[in-house]
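Researcher: Here's a chain I'd like modeled. Treat it as a single chain, no partners, no ligands.
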Amino acid sequence: MNHLFKLFIFSALFCFYQIDAQYVVKKDTLSGTELSFSLDERVNDALEKIEDKCDRNVGAPTKTPTKVLVASRELTNAEICRKNPKIMGFKIQVVIVKSNDEARKIATEFRGNFRNLKVETDASLRPNYKILAGSYFSKQSASDDLRNISKIYPSARVIPYAVFCVEAK
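Model: Modeled as a single isolated chain. C-alpha cells:
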C-alpha cells in the first residue's frame, strides 16, 4: 500500500510538471549581442501585444554617428593638464643640504630673493634635503629662471621631477 501511494504521488508530480505553463525561448539582439531568455507563454503574448503597438520602421537604415576626424597634432599644455593633473616635468634644484634647519633657512632666503617662484623642500634623500624651485614643462622653459638663480646659487641645476600641471610654466 505504501509503495502504491508513493507511485501515485510520483506520477501526479510528473503529470503536473508536464501540464505546467509552456515556456517560450526568444532570441533578440541588444546592441548587436544576441540575448536568449525563456518566459511564460502568457507573458510572451502580452509583450507581443505591446510590441505591435510600437512605431517601428522595419528595414529603415540605422543611423551611424558621423566620425569627426581630428588632425594628429601635438597636445597643448591645457589638454595635457585636463587628462593628468600631475605630470613628469622639471624643477630647479637650488641646493642639497644636510639638515632640516639649514634647508628652512635657505628656503626662506630664497623666497626673499625670488618672490615669483614657489620653493619647496624635498626630504626624500634623508639625511639630505633638496631645495626645489618652480615647476616647468621643459628644460627650455626653466632656463631663464635657472640663469637668474645661478647668480646667487651656482650649484643650481634643472632636474626631472613630478609637477602639478596647473603650476608649471
